[in-house]
Specification:
The structure is a single chain. This protein is of the alpha/beta class. It has 2 domains: about 140 residues, FAD/NAD(P)-binding domain; about 200 residues, FAD/NAD(P)-binding domain (3-Layer(bba) Sandwich). Helix content is about 30%, strand content about 25%. The protein has 12 helices and 25 strands. Strands 5-2-1-9-21 form a 5-stranded parallel beta sheet. The longest helix is centred in the N-terminal third of the chain and has 20 residues. The radius of gyration is 22 Å and the shape is globular. The mean pLDDT is about 95. The structure holds flavin-adenine dinucleotide. Flavin-adenine dinucleotide binds next to helix 1, strand 2, helix 2, helix 7 and helix 10. It catalyses: a quinone + NADH + H(+) = a quinol + NAD(+).
Length: about 425
């Protein structure tokens, strides 16, 4: 991999997501050699992926080059590679571009979509975990409307304009809200020769409320907002299958839809070598102690979504969200330096900063520790927080300008089929 050997201990980080980047920044200008490996050469701001899928933002405004994050740090190396295996015995990672020995290893590989073993749904539905997947979804949505214009078969036309979102968590809710706004504000102008009132947006939720990780008040308000926007919410319904045409459920309900978005779960993106039952716990996550150490190792750590750190408040592990990932990455940066100097490490304490979701224009729900609020103010808070955590001044400016433009013009100009998508072809 062409990484020189130095007298500094080598820290290898797998993954340049929220956790990996937070950790790398902490190790900047310290007496360690840091090698960050990621299969993408950019960091993705996943909370705004749904805006790429729905033409509100261009993909480059929510991506940031990892090399640019590291460019002013001495002793830092980035390699664009997929880590295939971790050889824990020999303290080595094996990648598609070669092997690399480590003194300290941090697995920050995030999470993957969880289909709970249903391969039919995996093959036929759309996921929204990466920028290429969001671009696929954007293309499919737009292509479906183009096709709907051409068919005289009413059943087919309705299926092309039906959108089923499986999962009523923040991703499902935000996507549904954005699609409903497109239906209301953009489709009638773009497709005057199509009865776009027939377009249907459904959320299917297995539990008895949407946004189940948030307060009852937030769930109820989000449901009210979505219903006002014309989104159909089906609660206590579990999706059983999707053959590419029809969604079947555990009830009599079926949905004919060409677009099904699977937002019903994620699981830890584990890597061979650390994926044995001994290491893995609920949600396919690597169990770690309060110092982020993997069971049985002093020098192998996991942080972010892939790590399951159980605490008194979170007995099933910290939530798979950006804040735990950032905080764990930062704390591990400090702890690694302590460990190298043979000083005691500090146990991790999660500072819960709350949760939020937006449903659309002027509509959001925010649960902070002390305050819970919904509506216009919540929407401003949601926007501010997302702008604040985006990496890069340019990205912040571009997103801000886009949002102002979209707000004033009731528009989403990135509704472009740049890279046509054929269903059943997975990139
Ligand atoms: C659509 C969506 C919306 C979300 N909305 C919110 C939200 O509103 N608020 C919130 O707090 N959280 C949200 N999340 C969750 C949040 O994005 C994650 O919790 C967070 O990204 C976890 O950070 P991480 O560093 O653990 O992993 P990630 O940010 O996923 O980064 C993992 C990195 O590892 C790399 N990688 C993985 N495997 C390998 C390998 N084998 N070799 C090399 N590289 C590898 C990946 O390319 C990636 O860059 C959302 C997630 C999604 C998908």
């Amino acid at each position: 991999m062409n990484i020189p050997k130095t007298s500094f201990p080598r820290v290898v980080i797998i993954g340049g997501g929220f956790a990996g980047v937070a950790l790398a920044k902490k190790l900047a200008k310290q007496e360690v050699q840091v090698v960050l490996i990621d299969k993408h050469n950019y960091h993705t701001f996943q909370p705004l992926l749904y805006q790429v899928s729905t033409g509100g933002l261009e993909p480059d405004s929510i991506a940031y080059p990892i090399r640019k994050v590291l460019q002013n740090f001495p002793n830092f190396y980035f390699r664009l590679a997929n880590v295939d295996e971790i050889d824990v015995e020999n303290e080595r990672v094996k990648t598609n571009i070669g092997d690399l020995d480590f003194d300290y290893l941090v697995v920050a590989s995030g999470s993957a979509t969880n289909y709970f073993g249903n391969t039919e749904i995996e093959k036929n539905s759309m996921a929204m975990k990466t920028i290429p997947q969001s671009l696929n979804l954007r293309s499919l949505i737009l292509e479906n409307f183009e096709d709907a214009l051409l068919t005289s078969d009413l059943h087919e036309r309705n299926a092309l304009m039906n959108f089923v979102i499986v999962g009523g968590g923040p991703t499902g809710v935000e996507l549904a809200g954005a699609l409903a706004e497109i239906k209301k504000g953009i489709l009638p102008k773009d497709y005057p020769d199509l009865d776009t009132r027939m377009a249907q947006i459904h959320i299917i939720q297995s539990g008895d409320r949407i946004l189940k990780g948030m307060s009852d008040k937030a769930s109820q308000k989000a449901e009210d907002f979505l219903e006002k926007l014309g989104v159909n919410i089906w609660k206590n319904v579990r999706v059983k299958g999707y053959d590419g045409k029809t969604v079947t459920t555990n009830t009599d309900l079926t949905f004919n839809a060409e677009t099904v978005v699977w937002a019903a779960g994620v699981k830890g993106e584990t890597i061979k070598g650390l994926d044995a039952e001994d290491f893995i716990t609920r949600g396919n996550r690597i169990e770690v102690n309060q110092f982020s150490q993997v069971k049985g190792f002093n020098n192998i750590f996991a942080v972010g979504d892939v790590a399951c750190m159980k605490t008194e408040d979170f007995p099933n592990g910290l939530p798979m969200m950006a804040q735990p990932a950032i905080q764990q990455g930062e704390q591990l940066g400090d702890n690694l330096l302590e460990l190298i100097e043979e000083k005691p490490m500090k146990p991790f304490e999660y500072k819960d900063k709350g949760a939020m979701a937006t449903i659309g224009r002027n509509k959001a729900v925010v649960d902070l520790k002390r305050f819970k609020f919904q509506g216009v103010f919540a929407w401003y808070v949601w926007m501010f927080v997302h702008l604040f955590f985006l990496i890069g001044f340019r990205n912040r400016m571009v997103v801000f300008v886009n949002w102002v433009y979209n707000y004033i013009r009731f528009d989403r100009e990135a509704r472009l089929i740049i890279r046509p998508f054929k269903k059943n072809f997975k990139s």
